[in-house]
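Let's study my pick:
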Amino acid sequence: MKSFPVPVRVKGECSPMAIPLPEGRVDGTVEVLKSLADPTRLQIVGILRRASEPVCICDLTATFNLSQPTISHHMARLREAGLIEVLRRGIWAYYRLATLDSKTRSLLDLLA
């Protein structure tokens, strides 16, 4: 077992730590992470990240062999988290990654 230095403590005295992220930033990050916690949604984000143009919902349905309502549910979750945008053309819906802040973009870069 490794040994490392531990500070001397006085019984009953605790030192509160500074919280590194503001609450609003934490809430937003948690929502992004929750939306990416599903394997299908994580794969969808990967597809959209690599796509040179918006991707049609029908192509995602064919890719995952899932029903259109199931894919639409996943897309709604990703939209709610602010990760994707939808463009409607007639009966078709096309999706692309949203313009993301640098921290969210860095997170997606780590996942890909």
Observations:
- The radius of gyration is 20 Å.
